[in-house]
């Protein structure tokens, strides 16, 4: 066998001997599981001799080296275990006794197995020495260590998660005594701090653990100790108060107190060893012992009992009773004097309160004595004291109120309820829990339920507690149970609904008798409800309320209608109400002739109907009468129009809202328009624009706005019958009133036909144009008072669209004068640049096109006539064109300005228009192309118009528009413009180099309309793609130019 380095083996052996010496000495110092570690020490001492023998032979074989290394590792493991047993707390070692013993066995067995591997050569072939080593190895492999019986019993008890272990103080006291004896703390009653220190050390030892066993042990042991310590922790009064007590009270004898409960015994019994306990306490202890299958022992001495017979101590019991009766009365009197004397020490209050608490728990008769001695008012007064005093007072008051209606009444007659609510609002979790528990106890009295509900904020605060994410689940549970008790009172149910707790009201509405349902419906109609509550009530109670509409009593129907009106105000409830069958009874009452249905109920019906038609419900297809009519049937619409003209303002306003809902629906608006026309009602609807009441005027404007997209000409004709309504609309635009009304008015006027020039003239007469400019400026400068931001976009778009209509009537000198006065060319250019709204940009571009088209007609008298141009110069390029006289517009050949002639160039609108050519909205692109095309018309200098577009980099985006072919109109406009641009030879040669342009033109030639094909052919000629003598399309050039520029034939 090949050996290893001899000095290394010798050094390892010597290190092992040193470590064995240290560990053997350490094992001697372990006091926990002393017997087990003593056995380990003896084994380690024997191993020392083995290692010495191996070192003598100087065997350097790999086997010997492996044995020494393994022994060294296991000795280190033993050292670590010894360190744990000498540094950890005694309670930690107690709870881990089985783990410690198991590890001790594993280490011993591993060392034994290692020893068995030592070869004969390691002991110089001495067979006797080898046999001795083998016997030691076998002994160590068979070694067994045992957990002490008391340790095993305690661990088994603590591992059980029984309620009796966590709650019964007698059992807990017995366990604490058992632990103390095991830890060697025989003087625990005199020195409880020693065990407390050990528990603190236990918590420190396990602070980083995440093992469920460890966490359970810390929780159980800590809980048991705190409960036992709390029983023994009696507050000490001041010397003065103690002296008063001592004067009236016979001292307590130790023999009266049970060692387990730490309370004066009621039924003392004696064991065979002479120890006396409270019967119930010692019986529970015996029960625990039997359940754990261990011998029954005396909890004080720990000695096993031969007999569990309990001998009643009658003489002691009689003595205790006599002592108790005398002292209890004296303690009540003394406590009263403390509570009424305002002592300077908080401890005095605590002493008195805890003493009274103990008296109540001992004997229920003492609760009567406390009330009879008028102690309840001073106890209630302490709810305004310091925190700990308040908590003890809450606990005592709850004890007094438990199972005692007279005490509940006595507490209710004081100022206790307000003080309890204040305690509920505090941040200390324990105080809130005790306050909630006391309030729950008081709510068991029906009389107090009414008083609690009448206390300002009581129900609101309780509801808030139940809906919060509080960590104190007990307080939340008590608040919930209190609210359930308070439901006995109708007024409380109403308050709960007002606070968002609607379930009690719903339960009464759904299952209560007729009079209760009436009251609940009445409450729903009057209390404010959140959207969530409205939705819940509609889902669960709508069918009940609708059934109530069949009642023969008008009052019942009216209350149900009012409640339904509240629910219908939430848009999402419309579908629920329709499914519940709301439409037939509502329409029946609304159309009822005579006095059977009062007008106030008709108004409610109209309000419900207005809400329903604004919802997403299937009201368009829902039958509302036996004939199968729906809300969009002609008969129904005619009846609604008739009611609008023959009822009061309240109903008229609601019915106008109904028509707004019908007009807002794409499924019903066409029918509505048809029926309004057939009824000839348009003029009567327009007349509502003059109503002085907002509730009439606003829905009227909104209705006409919706109708204007379908019957614009009829509305324009109606507004021209008399200018009063038109003037009203114009004044709305300029008013600082409701933004919704202004937006609807703007939308209405914007939708009227722009080619109705008489209407435009009427708007001029009403002074509309200056108002529009002023309001648009105000919107741009954020001066407008915004009532609702959602209307601002529609308002701004409507204003700009109305202003644009004036650019269609520039043959009217008054309009031209106004356009010049307000510098409309620059105004629209500014809107085009500054707005982010597509429709504003679209209308601004259209207005600029109209103004630019009109520019050539604005030639001043002193402008020189257009100079003659020789044809041969045109072929030499723009650089050789004859120069313009100084000061003249290069395109229009006259003295142009933005203000007077609306020139696109002078108003600096060309670049903003070019920027719109790559807009994502094709409508804006079309309008921008239309405006730029005015620079290429026949009545301007075409060549110089092309120069302007080229300089503005407009040619490339126009080519892109042609190639993209987003719409047919865009293609036609771009082809028209390119045909005129390609007349410039230099540009034609430049553009011809792009093959995509050729392909786009060929596509237009093949697939465009007649005008587009003709223009594409001419463009291809300019590009030299087809012969110039081709004459496929023979159309009048002037017509083509005119149609192409406008984008249509």
Keywords:
1049 residues, RING-type E3 ubiquitin transferase, disordered C terminus, single chain, mainly alpha, flat
Structure notes:
The protein is mostly helical. The chain starts with 5 loop residues before the first helix and ends with a helix. Strands 2-1-3 form a three-stranded antiparallel β-sheet. 67% of the residues lie in helices and 1% in strands. The model is unreliable at 867-881 and 1030-1049 (pLDDT under 50).
Broad structural category: mainly alpha
Whole-number radius of gyration? 51 Å
Number of strands: 3
Give the averaged pLDDT, no decimals.
Answer: 84
Give the CA-based shape. flat
Strand order of the largest sheet: 2-1-3
Beta-strand content bin? under 5%
> For the terminal residues, how far apart are their CA atoms?
112 Å
Largest sheet: 3 strands, antiparallel
**Treating each run of at least 4 consecutive H or I residues as one helix, how many helices?**
56
Model regions low in confidence, pLDDT < 50 over at least 5 residues: 867-881, 1030-1049
Q: Helical percent range?
A: 55-70%
EC number: 2.3.2.27
Pathway: Protein modification; protein ubiquitination
Catalytic activity: S-ubiquitinyl-[E2 ubiquitin-conjugating enzyme]-L-cysteine + [acceptor protein]-L-lysine = [E2 ubiquitin-conjugating enzyme]-L-cysteine + N(6)-ubiquitinyl-[acceptor protein]-L-lysine
Protein name: RING-type E3 ubiquitin transferase
């Amino acid at each position: 066998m090949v050996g290893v380095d001899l000095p290394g083996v010798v050094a390892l052996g010597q290190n092992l001997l040193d470590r064995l010496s240290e560990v053997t000495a350490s094992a001697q110092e372990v006091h926990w599981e002393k017997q087990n570690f003593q056995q380990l020490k003896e084994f380690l001492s024997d191993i020392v001799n083995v290692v010495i023998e191996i070192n003598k032979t100087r065997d350097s074989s790999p086997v010997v080296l492996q044995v020494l290394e393994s022994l060294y590792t296991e000795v280190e493991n033993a050292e670590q275990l010894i360190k744990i047993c000498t540094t950890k707390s005694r309670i930690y070692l107690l709870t881990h006794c089985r783990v410690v013993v198991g590890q001790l066995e594993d280490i011993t067995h591993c060392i034994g197995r290692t020893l068995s591997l030592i070869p004969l050569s390691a002991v110089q072939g001495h067979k006797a020495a080898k046999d001795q080593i083998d016997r030691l190895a076998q002994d160590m492999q068979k070694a067994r260590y045992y957990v002490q019986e008391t340790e095993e019993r305690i661990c088994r008890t603590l591992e059980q998660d029984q309620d009796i272990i966590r709650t019964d103080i007698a059992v807990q006291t017995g366990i604490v005594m058992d632990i103390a004896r095991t830890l060697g703390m025989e003087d625990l009653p005199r020195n409880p701090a020693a065990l407390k220190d050990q528990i603190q050390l236990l918590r420190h030892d396990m602070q980083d653990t995440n093992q469920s066993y460890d966490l359970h042990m810390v929780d159980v042991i800590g809980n048991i100790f705190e409960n036992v310590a709390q029983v023994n922790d009696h507050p000490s009064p001041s010397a003065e108060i103690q002296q008063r007590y001592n004067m009236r009270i016979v001292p307590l004898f130790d023999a009266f107190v049970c060692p387990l409960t730490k309370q004066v015994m009621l039924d003392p019994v004696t064991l065979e060893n002479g120890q006396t306990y409270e019967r119930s306490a010692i019986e529970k202890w015996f029960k625990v012992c039997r359940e754990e299958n261990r011998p029954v022992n005396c909890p004080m001495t720990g000695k096993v009992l031969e007999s569990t017979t309990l001998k009643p101590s009658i003489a002691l019991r009689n003595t205790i009773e006599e002592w108790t009766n005398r002292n209890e009365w004296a303690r009540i009197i003394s406590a009263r004097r403390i509570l009424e004397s305002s002592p300077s020490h908080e401890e005095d209050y605590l002493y008195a309160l805890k003493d009274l608490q103990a008296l109540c728990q001992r004997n229920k008769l003492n609760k009567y004595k406390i009330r009879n001695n008028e102690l309840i008012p001073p106890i209630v007064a302490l709810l305004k004291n310091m925190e700990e005093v308040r908590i003890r007072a809450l606990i005592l008051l709850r004890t007094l109120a438990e199972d005692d209606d007279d005490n509940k009444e006595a507490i209710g007659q004081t100022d206790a309820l307000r003080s309890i609510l204040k305690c509920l609002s505090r941040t200390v979790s324990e105080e809130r829990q005790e306050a909630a528990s006391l309030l729950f106890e008081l709510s068991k009295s029906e009389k107090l339920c009414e008083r609690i509900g009448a206390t300002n904020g009581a129900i609101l605060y309780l509801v808030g507690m139940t809906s919060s994410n509080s960590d104190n689940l007990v307080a939340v549970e008590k608040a919930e149970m209190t609210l359930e008790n308070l439901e006995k009172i109708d007024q409380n149910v109403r308050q709960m609904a007002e606070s968002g707790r609607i379930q009690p009201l719903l339960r009464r509405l759904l299952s209560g008798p007729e009079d209760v349902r009436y009251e609940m419906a009445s409450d729903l109609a009057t209390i404010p409800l959140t959207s969530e509550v409205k939705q819940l009530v509609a889902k669960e109670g709508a069918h009940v309320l609708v059934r109530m509409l069949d009642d023969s009593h008008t009052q019942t129907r009216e209350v149900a209608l009012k409640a339904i009106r509240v629910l219908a105000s939430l848009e999402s409830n419309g579908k629920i109400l329709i499914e519940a069958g709301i439409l037939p009874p509502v329409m029946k009452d609304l159309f009822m002739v005579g006095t059977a249905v009062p007008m106030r109920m008709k108004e409610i019906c109209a309000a419900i109907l207005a809400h329903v038609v604004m919802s997403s419900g299937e009201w368009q297809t829902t039958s509302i009468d036996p004939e199968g009519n729906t809300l969009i049937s002609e008969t129904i619409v005619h009846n609604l129009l008739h009611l609008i003209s023959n009822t009061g303002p309240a109903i008229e306003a609601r019915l106008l809202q109904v028509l707004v809902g019908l007009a807002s629906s794409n499924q019903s608006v066409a029918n509505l328009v048809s029926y309004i026309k057939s009824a000839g009602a348009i003029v009567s609807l327009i007349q509502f624009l003059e109503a002085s009441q907002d509730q009439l005027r606003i829905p009227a404007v909104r209705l006409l706005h919706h109708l204007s997209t379908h019957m614009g000409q009829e509305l324009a004709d109606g507004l021209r019958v008399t200018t009063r309504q038109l003037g009203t609309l114009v004044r709305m635009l300029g008013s600082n009133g409701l933004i919704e009304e202004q937006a609807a008015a703007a939308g209405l006027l914007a939708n009227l036909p722009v080619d109705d020039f008489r209407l435009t003239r009427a708007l001029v007469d009403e002074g509309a144009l200056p108002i529009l400019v002023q309001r648009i400026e105000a919107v741009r400068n954020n001066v407008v008072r915004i009532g609702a931001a959602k209307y601002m976009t529609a308002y701004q778009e409507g204003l700009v669209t109305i202003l644009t209509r004036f650019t269609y009537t520039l043959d009217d000198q008054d309009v031209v004068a106004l356009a010049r006065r307000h510098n409309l060319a620059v105004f629209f250019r500014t809107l085009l640049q500054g707005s982010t709204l597509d429709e504003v940009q679209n209308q601004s571009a259209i207005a600029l096109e109209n103004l630019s088209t009109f520019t050539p007609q604005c030639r001043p008298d002193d402008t020189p006539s257009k100079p003659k141009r020789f044809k041969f110069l045109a072929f030499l390029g723009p650089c050789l064109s004859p120069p313009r006289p100084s000061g003249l517009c290069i395109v229009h050949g006259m003295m142009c300005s933005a203000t007077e002639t609306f020139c696109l160039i002078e108003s600096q609108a060309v670049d903003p228009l070019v920027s719109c050519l790559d807009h994502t909205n094709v409508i804006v692109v079309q309008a921008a192309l239309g405006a730029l095309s005015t620079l290429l018309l026949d009545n301007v200098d075409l060549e110089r118009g092309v120069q302007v577009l080229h300089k503005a980099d407009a040619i490339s985006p126009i080519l892109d528009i042609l190639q993209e072919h987003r719409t047919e109109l865009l293609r036609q406009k771009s082809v028209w413009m390119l045909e005129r641009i390609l007349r410039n030879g230099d540009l034609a040669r430049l553009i011809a180099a792009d093959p995509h342009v050729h392909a786009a033109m060929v596509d237009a030639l093949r697939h465009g309309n007649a005008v587009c094909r003709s223009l594409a052919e001419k463009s291809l000629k300019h590009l030299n793609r087809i012969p110039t003598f081709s004459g496929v399309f023979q159309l009048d050039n002037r017509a083509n130019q005119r149609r192409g520029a406008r984008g249509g034939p």
